[in-house]
Automatic annotation (TrEMBL):
Protein name: Vanin-like protein 3
Matches recorded under Pfam families: CN_hydrolase, Vanin_C
Chain ranges of the CN hydrolase domain: 59-329
Coiled-coil stretches noted in the UniProt entry, renumbered to this chain: none
Entry-linked PANTHER family: BIOTINIDASE, BIOTINIDASE-RELATED
A molecular-function term among this protein's GO annotations: hydrolase activity
InterPro entries the UniProt entry points to: Biotinidase-like_euk, Biotinidase/VNN, C-N_Hydrolase, C-N_Hydrolase_sf, Vanin_C
Gene: LOC105232645
Keywords assigned: Glycoprotein, Hydrolase, Signal
Protein family per UniProt: Belongs to the carbon-nitrogen hydrolase superfamily. BTD/VNN family.
Length: 570
């Protein structure tokens, strides 16, 4: 069995009993919800009640963290329950002010009950076909009606079917025997319930789904004057279409639906979402499926280099919750310059029960254990063949403790540099370059990226009062350099706490990340560069060829062992 980054639940459905017994559900109190609802109520009063229009400086967005049902229900019951819950959220008081609402992937229908989806060119409003025999399933119609009734843009993910014949002119590949293509698809309804955009997923893995012959770039405009592009989950780690939409098409507002499995120490969900939005300086609306036991959680609204407006990493048994923020529009071509007015995180409290992956290359970093006490000053330089990075750190005392467990402990830190290829799932990988410090539970390399058990109180022995990491990253055509930070609560540091600077030298970028305020609760802090697939310009979307290099096989071995562990967040 391999690890799954995205869409973990559909594959888990069959084996859920086994997993349930290995990873017992932790039914903790739902204080998170209550806390957030009161914040939302306060925030909503400030928003006023009009739909935003083209002359407004902002719009109001909602992203939904959604816990799917999947035990003991038939496909029909399951879809009916999900559809009802979606509609309830769309018509809830929390959603009242939103112009646009994003639901996560894989939380509506499944491959046993697929629906046709009209092409945007047809400008069809499925809701208006409700009383005629139509080719669209009732849930597509019901959600079109919900978008229409509530006058909102709504983005959903579903499993779509298409007659191969309709596509034969552009796709020469052989059709399945039932005459259908099955896609993972994002569907966008406008305020009338009209289907105005459709995106079929490109980066598919171990899903019995078809890929599009050519990658699609799904872009749509709204009546409040904002142009969006949207894509799904795993796409965020790849150049096409995600990075290409920003770098080549100049889109500044991105919608991302996901069921994402977090990986320590650099790619947990909210951490990656914020890093990606900041590195690109774009608005990102990210909605995550909520199933922490399988690793899926993480939603948020991010304002580029102004950081997160709202974000949620949920523990325990997951939630069905909309997170709302007022988002400033980008002025023509100008990046974010102002600080966000609000920043909320769903849980500053310790969480439990999120299953985490670990970076399979972490043991291969060129790293050095930092010998730090409460009054250290150190300076370290480490290199790989491709990259040298420097670290300057100063520490001071701290009185803080985190959690109220029965034992206490403190993390140690390594400074590490890595350049090379990392795989995600068996045939997909990126070339990355990383310079960072990361937390380890002891002085060994193999303890890095692990967390202390939930019953441990973390009592840091020092705080970083200065922490600065610099590196010079070789320029290539496909490259995204991101600030990457993670604290004990699994959120990233905000622009008030961290400075990020990227200087364009002709052949390279000089990147620097530095603390602005002292911190004693870091799990990771550094620079993460994604060079995507630097070895070839060729696209591999249609190929399912397994790249069998020895190193890939080794990594697969490492994943299998990873699966034996459950890393609990504090
Ligand atoms: C936006 O402002 C322009 C110029 O003031 C005005 O003509 C237009 O009607 C406004 N549009 C909306 C939707 O209010
Ligand atoms: C989109 O949702 C459907 C239905 O829940 C799911 O089967 C599919 O896997 C999802 N998309 C992706 C990319 O996983
Ligand atoms: C469909 O029929 C129902 C009941 O007859 C009616 O209430 C509803 O307005 C109709 N919907 C449309 C879109 O015509
Ligand atoms: C779609 O997937 C099915 C099942 O894997 C396969 O038989 C068929 O050839 C695929 N269609 C295309 C156009 O690739």
């Amino acid at each position: 069995m391999l690890r799954k980054w995205c869409d973990g639940i559909s594959s888990l459905t069959a084996g859920i009993e086994a997993i349930g017994s290995k990873f017992p559900q932790n039914m903790g109190p739902l204080f998170v919800n209550i806390f957030l609802n009161s914040l939302l109520a306060i925030a909503l009063q400030a928003f006023g009640s009009q739909a935003s229009d083209i002359n407004d400086s902002h719009f109001v967005a909602g992203v939904v963290e959604f816990r799917p049902d999947f035990i003991g229900l038939t496909t029909e019951q399951l879809i009916a329950k999900h559809t009802d819950a979606y509609i309830e959220i769309l018509s809830s008081p929390e959603a009242l002010e939103t112009d646009i609402v994003v639901f996560p992937e894989s939380t509506l229908n499944n491959e046993f009950n697929t629906t046709y989806v009209p092409a945007p060119e047809e400008a069809i409003i499925p809701c208006l076909l409700a009383n005629q025999s139509s080719r669209y399933e009732y849930y597509l119609i019901a959600l079109s009606c919900a978008a229409r009734d509530n006058r909102k843009y709504v983005i959903i993910n579903l499993t779509e079917k298409e007659d191969c014949a309709a596509n034969a002119a552009v796709d020469p590949r052989p059709c399945a025997t039932n005459g259908l293509n099955i896609y993972n698809t994002n569907v966008v309804f406008d305020r009338e319930g009209r289907v105005i955009s459709r995106y079929r997923k490109v980066n598919i893995y171990v899903e019995r789904k078809n890929t599009t012959y050519q990658p699609e770039f799904a872009i749509f405009d709204t009546d409040f004057g904002v142009r969006f592009a949207h894509f799904i989950c795993f796409d965020l780690l790849f150049y096409t279409p995600a990075e290409e939409l920003v770098a080549k098409y100049g889109i500044r507002n991105i919608i991302f639906t996901s069921m994402f499995a977090s990986e320590t120490p650099f790619l947990t969900a909210v951490q990656l979402q914020q890093s990606w939005a900041w590195g690109n300086n774009v608005t990102l609306l990210a909605a995550g499926a909520s199933y922490p036991q399988s690793g899926a959680t993480g939603s948020g609204i991010y304002a580029g280099s102004s950081g997160s407006l709202v974000s949620a990493m949920i523990g325990n048994s997951g939630v069905r919750q909309i997170y709302v923020a007022k988002v400033h529009k980008f002025a023509e071509k100008s990046p974010y310059t102002t600080a966000p007015e609000t920043h909320t995180t769903a849980a500053a409290q310790p969480q439990t029960g999120v299953r985490l992956l670990r970076d399979p290359q972490l043991d291969n970093f060129n790293s050095q254990l930092l010998q730090l006490n409460a009054s250290s000053v150190i300076s370290v330089e480490l290199c790989t063949e491709m990259l040298c990075c420097s670290l300057i750190a100063e520490t001071t005392t701290t009185e803080n403790s985190y959690g109220n467990g029965t034992t206490s402990d403190a993390y140690q830190y390594r400074f590490g540099v890595f350049t090379g290829r990392r795989s995600y799932e068996k045939e997909q990988y990126s070339d990355v370059a990383i310079c960072a410090i990361y937390a380890c539970t002891d002085d060994t390399v193999s303890s890095c990226g692990l967390l202390f058990p939930a019953n441990t109180t973390i009592m840091p022995k020092f705080a970083f009062k200065r922490l600065q990491i610099e590196g010079s990253f070789q320029k290539t055509e496909r490259l995204l350099i991101m600030p990457n930070t993670l604290d004990f609560s699994f959120y990233s540091l905000q622009p008030a706490q961290v400075a990020w600077n990227l200087a364009d030298k002709s052949k390279s970028y000089d990147a620097e990340i530095a603390l602005k305020a002292s911190a004693d609760n870091l799990l990771a802090f550094g620079i993460y560069a994604n060079y995507y697939d630097s070895s070839s310009g060729a696209h591999k979307y249609c190929s399912s060829m397994l790249i069998l290099s020895t190193s890939v096989l080794l990594w697969i071995g490492a994943y299998a062992t990873d699966l034996l562990y459950v890393y609990e967040i504090l």
